[in-house]
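Quick illustration, no need to memorize.
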Amino acid sequence: MIKILFFGALRERLQCAGLQMPLHTPCAVSELLNQLRQQSALFAGALADDNLLCALNQQLCGTEVLVQPGDEVAFFPPVTGG
């Protein structure tokens, strides 16, 4: 199992703080995103932004990083500042 967390506007749009998902073999974050997008139109729309930020075990990472069983993956919208 892996734990998936959503933050900021993603959390609001999905009306979901997170979920758990079975993972039997390692996969790239990009593959995980594709799986999530296929769950529903809501997930597909909310996770469509190619600029989403992701973290693996509380460390920012790219979508090429491998997720292992037991990991925690977090997604959040790009941060803007001023």
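The chain has a mean pLDDT of 94.
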